[in-house]
C-alpha cells in the first residue's frame, strides 16, 4: 500500500491541505471539531507527516537526545530502550550519544544536541563541568537527568532510591551474620557511588559494625575494575566475608575474580551487587542483586521531556524517585566460621 | 580556567584568526610551518573549535549515525561501542537510533540522518524497504552495512562468516554423537537467520542426517521468543537431543525454558548458540557459543565511513568478512541414551 499523503488526509477530512498542515503544526488555534476531523483522517490513513518538513515548519526535529556513559553497559541499554519506546509513542525518535565518562566526548555530544539537532535532552552519568550544562539549560532546551544530577545544575531528575536500597541490602547481609563487610565502590565524584556507599556505611553503623578502611575500595569501574578490586579485597590477610558491589559490571568483575582465585561463593564470601542483569538468575550461583527499574527510568524521563515540549510554560516538575527491587538469590549465605 | 578561544590560538601562534580558521578547516592549502605553529598553539591551549561553527563552515556535522534494531541487545551495544571508539579517534561522534525492527521507526531515524544531521550512516539489521535506503545512497551520504545488507542495495558491508560458523558449530554437535538436532531460528527474511540456518542444514546433510520439519523453528526473536520456541521443541513426543540457537537472546530464552521445565543441560539436551555474552562463562552450565567480533565489526564500519569521508572520490571498498570464534564450554555433551 502506498503511503498516505497530506492530500489524502485533506480529502478524507473534507478540508484543504493548508488546514491539515495548520492542525498538525498545532501552532494556530483551530476549532475542536475541525481538529477532530483532521485527526480522525490522519489516524484512519496512518498518515505520517514528513519529519524533515514538519521539523522545518515547526522549528522542531522531533528528536530527543540521550547522553549515556557507556552504551555497551546493559543498564544504559535498558534506559535507552525505555526512553525510546515512550518517545516513539509520543511521535519522537531518540538519538543516543555516549561519553565514556570523558568530558571532551561529552562536550562534543552535547554540542551536537545543542545545535538544535534535538528538541530535548536526557542525561545519564554526566561528568560535564556544569558550565556546559548551564549553557544548555540557558538555551531553553528541555532537559532531564537520569540516574544522577550534577550538584549545581537545575533540572528535573529521574532517580533510584540509591542510599535506602543499598542500606536495606547491606542490612540483609548483616542479618545473615556478617560482621566484616567490604564494598567495591565507584569513583567518589559520582553521586550514585557516594549514595550507595553512604547506605553501606549507614547499615554497618546501625549494627555497631566498624568498617576496615582497606575494605572500602573506591574509584573502580568496568569488569576489569571490579575484578581488580575484588582481588585486592580477597588477598587481604583476613578477607571480609561479604562484598557489596556498586554496580553490575563491577559485580561481574568481582564474580570473575572469585572464579579465577578459586574462592567459593557464597561458601567463602558472599557477593551482592547493585543492578540486576538478565543472566544473573542463571549464573552459578544465581546472583543476589538490587534491580533498578532502568527501563522505567527511561520512560519516565521521556514523559518529563514530552510534557515540557508540550507545555513550555509549565513549572519545572519535581524529581521522580523510583523504588528498586531487592532480588534475593543464592550468592549470599552465612559467613564461614572463623578460626 | 576559561576555555581557549580562536583569538587565543591566533595570538599564541602569531597569526590572524582567519589563518587559524583556514588551518583548522583544512580545505585551503597552507605551508607546513604555518600549520605546525597553529597546531602547536591549539594543543597547548587545549582549544576545541565550536562544533556547530565548524560544521557550518565545512558543511559537516562531525557526526556519524548508527541504526540498530534494539539498543538493549548487548550485541548491538558492543557494535555501537566499537563504532564510537573508532569514530571518536577520528574526530567524530556517533548518534545511535533504534528501529525495533519497525519499518516506520526505521524510516523516521533514517529521515533524521538524511536531513544532514550526520555525515555518514552505519546500518545494522535494516528492515527498510530498499527505496528508503536507495534514497539515502542517492543523496551521496556515505553508508556502510553491519551484520547484514538488504539484497538490492549497494554499499560496503562488515559481516561475520555466518554460514561457515554455524556449520562448524553444528559439526561439533554431530561429532558429540547427536543425530536428531533442532534449530531455533530468526525470521526467514533476515539474511543472517537464513545464512545460519543454511549452515545448520549443510552440516546435517553432510553427515547424512535428516532434519524433522518440526525441529526447525523459524520467526522467533527476543528472550520470550527463544523460551517459547524451546518449549515447543522440548514438548515434542521425541524431543531432539541438541538445539542450536540463532542468537544470544534466543539462547537466553532457550536456557530459561530448560530451567522452567526442569530439563537438564547438557544431560538431557545440548544447547549451543550464536553470539557470546559476558556472563555465558558463569552460567550453570557455562554456555558454548559462537562469538561474533561485535566490537571489531563496529570499528571496521567506522573505518570504512571515515575513509569514505576523507576520500569521497575513492572507489567503493569491498565487504569485510570477519571470522567468529567458537567457544566450547559445558552446555553440550553426548546425547542421552535412547530407549
From TrEMBL, chains A, B:
Residues 4-58 form the HTH lacI-type domain. It holds the Pfam family Peripla_BP_1. SUPFAM superfamilies: lambda repressor-like DNA-binding domains, Periplasmic binding protein-like I. GO terms for molecular function: DNA binding. It comes from the Bacteria. Keywords: DNA-binding, Transcription, Transcription regulation. InterPro entries: HTH_LacI, Lambda_DNA-bd_dom_sf, Peripla_BP/Lac1_sug-bd_dom, Peripla_BP_I. This is LacI family DNA-binding transcriptional regulator.
Amino acid at each position: 500500500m502506498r503511503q498516505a499523503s497530506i492530500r489524502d488526509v485533506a480529502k478524507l477530512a473534507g478540508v484543504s491541505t493548508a488546514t491539515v498542515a495548520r492542525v498538525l503544526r498545532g501552532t494556530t488555534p483551530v476549532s475542536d471539531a475541525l481538529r477532530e476531523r483532521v485527526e480522525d483522517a490522519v489516524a484512519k490513513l496512518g498518515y505520517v507527516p514528513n519529519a524533515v518538513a514538519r521539523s522545518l515548519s515547526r522549528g522542531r526535529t522531533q528528536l530527543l537526545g540521550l547522553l549515556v556513559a557507556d552504551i555497551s553497559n546493559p543498564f544504559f541499554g535498558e534506559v535507552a530502550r525505555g526512553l525510546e519506546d515512550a518517545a516513539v509513542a509520543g511521535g519522537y525518535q531518540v538519538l543516543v550519544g555516549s561519553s565514556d565518562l570523558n568530558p571532551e566526548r561529552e562536550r562534543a555530544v552535547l554540542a551536537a544536541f545543542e545545535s538544535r539537532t534535538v528538541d530535548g535532552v536526557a542525561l545519564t552519568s554526566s561528568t560535564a563541568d556544569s558550565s556546559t550544562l548551564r549553557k544548555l539549560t540557558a538555551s531553553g532546551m528541555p532537559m532531564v537527568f537520569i540516574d544522577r544530577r550534577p550538584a549545581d545544575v537545575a533540572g528535573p531528575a529521574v532517580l533510584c532510591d540509591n542510599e535506602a536500597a543499598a542500606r536495606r541490602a547491606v542490612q540483609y547481609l548483616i542479618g545473615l551474620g556478617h560482621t566484616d563487610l567490604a564494598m567495591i565502590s565507584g569513583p567518589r565524584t559520582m553521586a550514585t557511588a557516594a549514595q550507595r556507599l553512604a547506605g553501606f556505611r549507614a547499615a554497618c553503623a546501625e549494627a555497631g559494625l566498624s568498617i576496615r578502611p582497606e575494605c572500602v575500595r573506591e574509584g573502580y569501574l568496568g569488569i576489569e575494575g571490579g575484578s581488580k578490586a575484588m582481588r585486592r579485597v580477597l588477598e587481604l590477610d583476613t578477607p571480609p566475608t561479604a562484598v557489596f558491589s556498586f554496580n553490575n559490571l563491577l559485580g561481574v568483575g568481582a564474580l570473575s575474580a572469585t572464579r579465577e582465585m578459586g574462592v567459593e561463593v557464597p561458601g567463602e564470601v558472599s557477593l551482592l551487587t547493585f543492578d540486576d542483569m538478565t543472566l544473573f538468575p542463571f549464573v552459578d550461583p544465581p546472583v543476589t542483586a538490587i534491580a533498578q527499574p532502568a527501563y522505567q527510568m527511561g520512560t519516565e524521563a521521556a514523559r518529563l521531556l514530552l510534557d515540557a515540549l508540550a507545555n513550555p510554560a509549565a513549572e519545572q516538575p519535581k524529581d521522580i524517585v523510583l523504588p528498586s527491587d531487592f532480588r534475593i538469590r543464592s550468592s549470599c549465605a552465612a559467613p564461614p566460621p572463623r578460626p
